[in-house]
């Protein structure tokens, strides 16, 4: 019987429960299918610290090698370290991780050479089709001789590349609490931060894919409580939290207050524009703060607004030649990193910006954090289209209101905006709202939620 991959293959990656939804047998077929769809003659694999990751990664390598492909295994790594290897070695790649999902999950993030993403429209649908067919019929025989599987350590090279992109030579000593959440930040941070004038307070650096301390998802406020407390207790200059595969970074200031990813996007955008002579395109998705395009224009850049999601950001980065892109979810994309996302490089920019002046982080980021946002609020609804239409009907004839449907529905005035987007995978509508002050934001947020939840 053919495997049912409908719940396993997502828009951008493979992700599901092991062994209930997938196992090493399927991983081997994914390796073979990846080779057939991409035409790879060699590839690179890496994996996170989950108990199932080494076996799944090796099975994928076997499936690829059986079709004559040479596989370079970089072993334990963060997702952006795998992207580094794909870019630096010029090879397609596969990263075995389920990012911030619970321990029983695992997945594959795949890319072509140069870290170009493989998603539904760029090969993932064809890979799924082959794996489903081959799980029933068996993969066809190949005449090619078996490829080699060799190990290669890229951690030092990855760290050196990141440090070459940020000038850290003149920063003052800083005390930084780092919460790795028992994820891959515990593996990469010691090497990347080595030699910098940092007093690092490590939290949960032990690699443990069962996540004994808290979920490795800093987007949920409950998971940064330990970091906030530790920053205050230690008198640290800032705190940094990484998600499970350490491709996203979240920042808290010296008071333990979270710094919005929009403010980080604006700060890094200003720095990247300065590096590029005050010129360049900066990508931001449509639910980042108004602050982001304002700061970009003030520093001579051109802001470009996109849909939410890394495939849209990366496609627009490539199309426009953008130098940097940021999302509300703390994904940060850099032209100098093959247009791929790396939270670690964003973290180095924050350290360089803070260490290059004498004030506290709260003062530094205030200039980039100008408005009041609601954060993302999810509502379970029976009829996504019907509720979205009801929101549109409530606002479309109001004077001074602008509507657009780049991604869901965005409604904006001179003083506030909100966006409502349907989830692709769950019966949810996601609301983000922002205004010039707290009272206005709360009023708009509550009005829209009342319509969504009616």
Automatic annotation (TrEMBL):
Cofactor(s) required, per the database record: Mg(2+)
InterPro entries: A-D-PHexomutase_a/b/a-I (IPR005844), A-D-PHexomutase_a/b/a-I/II/III (IPR016055), A-D-PHexomutase_a/b/a-II (IPR005845), A-D-PHexomutase_a/b/a-III (IPR005846), A-D-PHexomutase_C (IPR005843), A-D-PHexomutase_C_sf (IPR036900), Alpha-D-phosphohexomutase_SF (IPR005841)
GO MF, any single term: metal ion binding
Domain Alpha-D-phosphohexomutase C-terminal: 376-449
GO biological process, one term: carbohydrate metabolic process
Residues in Alpha-D-phosphohexomutase alpha/beta/alpha domain copies: 7-136, 156-256, 266-371
Gene3D superfamilies associated with the record: Alpha-D-Glucose-1,6-Bisphosphate, subunit A, domain 3, Alpha-D-phosphohexomutase, C-terminal domain
Keywords: Isomerase, Magnesium, Metal-binding, Phosphoprotein
Family: Belongs to the phosphohexose mutase family.
PANTHER family in the record: PHOSPHOMANNOMUTASE
UniProt-recorded name of the protein: Phosphoglucosamine mutase
Organism of derivation: Streptomyces griseorubiginosus
Lineage of producing organism: Bacteria, Bacillati, Actinomycetota, Actinomycetes, Kitasatosporales
